[in-house]
Amino acid sequence: MLILLLADFCTSQAATMAAFDALPSLDAGVDKPTAVAVDAVGRVYVAESMSNRVRVFAQGGGLL
User: Fold this and answer.
1) Is 21:1 a contact under the CB 8 Å cutoff?
2) With contact defined as beta carbons under 8 Å apart, do 47 and 33 qualify?
3) 3-state secondary structure 1-64
4) How far is the C-alpha of 24 from the C-alpha of 10, rounded, in Å?
5) 41: phi > 0 → left, psi -120 to 50 → alpha, else beta; which?
């Protein structure tokens, strides 16, 4: 199971954002993630600063 953590730059704390049964980020090669959002149906959006793109993961963990 993959647990997605988001770092808080102000407090140096990490918060659990989502958990997946698959390992999409290892295959997807997320490049310097800067923001994470989750929509109403559970899709996870990861903004990447180095590649200037947003990766979208399904609720089950697969890359869309």
Assistant:
1) yes
2) yes
3) CEEEEEEECCCCEEEEEEEECCCHHHHHCCCCEEEEEECCCCCEEEEECCCCEEEEECCCCCEC
4) 28
5) alpha
Instruction: Give pLDDT tens digits along the chain (64 positions).
Output: 455 565 555 555 555 555 554 444 445 567 778 888 888 888 888 888 878 888 888 887 778 8
For residue 41, which amino acid is it?
Answer: V
| Nearest of 40, 26, 12, 51 to residue 4 by alpha carbon | 26
pLDDT at 41: 87
Give the residue from 59, 26, 9, 3 showing the smallest Cα distance to 45: 59
